[in-house]
């Protein structure tokens, strides 16, 4: 209970305030507390601040500017960064219920909020809390559920509009905000479907809104999907505009391809190129960076897509760059997987150039952890003269390669593909080496001996069998020799 002294001081303050001009809500408050027998707690308990006591029209309940509801001239304007001032003739309460606002009001709020954010994206003030269909949310993060329903047209039972009406309302309300919608995790998906429903004239307007930002959208985690949908709907002229935009700067298209998101967008672009002029411009932009793309975990997909989508003559410049950078591509984890299909797709002089580049570095590639796969692939193609050239490049080094973790794979490839007479020549080179018994117990050499026994015939095979018999005791005391000996004995039974 409040003392008599406190109660008297309270009423003195009340009389002083009453002499000045007071807002209606404040007058109501003092009229409710005028009884001198009341305590301060009783007075405040009778004060109502429920949301239902404030009846705002839907159109007034939107913060269009950082100053207030509808600008500085509006009589209800009390907002300075979202904080109400003492000059307000209305009070703000943040917990308005959904029942106070219709879904039609939601749609209007949504459009106004998006426009507000796009017009002043750097505004750092406090945004008022706005109710939507799924509960309370801030203006900074519009309700994704309502936006998705509005964009996709699945909320017809809520909004009460026909499909064409919804499309027109979307087109009118969200123009100028499409870039923001395209880069949002939730609205980008329904925006893609909405683009399908627009007329050609409406799509052209949206295209003009996004074309200046297409390079940023292509590398955006969500915007790249909108760009892909645009490419499916673009006319040839619009496709040319996209091509010109992404190729206007040196290596700009290459940088886009190095992004995991940009790669998908560029692949879609390649699929929808319709003219030779477009293909020439894209390939001119990609070819200088072919070596970089071939070694990149994302960019190499674009190289493979070019081989798949374009005629061989369009890929000629790209394959030339790959041939010139053959060694650094072949010795890369990703690059070795790109070089193999490049050899397969190449024709004529370009193919010869690629093969010659591999032959030039065959000795180094054969013992490289990635390059050996390129050498093996070249052998497996069965191109006339390739096996002979490789044998000549590696002649005299087969014993060393047989003991090498990666080189042994290349030596085995000669035997597995039964490349005669070179498999016989390699076996004789191994047998003539004074350290040949070491191959029987070597972690990698024992596999080479096993492959040779399966491949060669006649006196060469007999010489290998005699080698194993002479060194059987040594092989019994070694893990790898024991396995080879067991396999050999099993084959003789």
TrEMBL record:
<dbReference type="InterPro" id="IPR011989">
    <property type="entry name" value="ARM-like"/>
</dbReference>
<dbReference type="InterPro" id="IPR001313">
    <property type="entry name" value="Pumilio_RNA-bd_rpt"/>
</dbReference>
<dbReference type="InterPro" id="IPR033712">
    <property type="entry name" value="Pumilio_RNA-bd"/>
</dbReference>
<feature type="repeat" description="Pumilio">
    <location>
        <begin position="209"/>
        <end position="245"/>
    </location>
</feature>
<feature type="domain" description="PUM-HD">
    <location>
        <begin position="146"/>
        <end position="492"/>
    </location>
</feature>
<feature type="repeat" description="Pumilio">
    <location>
        <begin position="429"/>
        <end position="469"/>
    </location>
</feature>
<feature type="repeat" description="Pumilio">
    <location>
        <begin position="393"/>
        <end position="428"/>
    </location>
</feature>
<keyword id="KW-0677">Repeat</keyword>
<feature type="region of interest" description="Disordered">
    <location>
        <begin position="1"/>
        <end position="31"/>
    </location>
</feature>
<keyword id="KW-0694">RNA-binding</keyword>
<protein>
    <recommendedName>
        <fullName>PUM-HD domain-containing protein</fullName>
    </recommendedName>
</protein>
<dbReference type="GO" id="GO:0005737">
    <property type="term" value="C:cytoplasm"/>
</dbReference>
<dbReference type="GO" id="GO:0003729">
    <property type="term" value="F:mRNA binding"/>
</dbReference>
<dbReference type="Pfam" id="PF00806">
    <property type="entry name" value="PUF"/>
</dbReference>
<feature type="repeat" description="Pumilio">
    <location>
        <begin position="248"/>
        <end position="284"/>
    </location>
</feature>
<feature type="repeat" description="Pumilio">
    <location>
        <begin position="320"/>
        <end position="356"/>
    </location>
</feature>
<dbReference type="InterPro" id="IPR033133">
    <property type="entry name" value="PUM-HD"/>
</dbReference>
<dbReference type="GO" id="GO:0006417">
    <property type="term" value="P:regulation of translation"/>
</dbReference>
<keyword id="KW-0810">Translation regulation</keyword>
<comment type="function">
    <text>Sequence-specific RNA-binding protein that regulates translation and mRNA stability by binding the 3'-UTR of target mRNAs.</text>
</comment>
<dbReference type="InterPro" id="IPR016024">
    <property type="entry name" value="ARM-type_fold"/>
</dbReference>
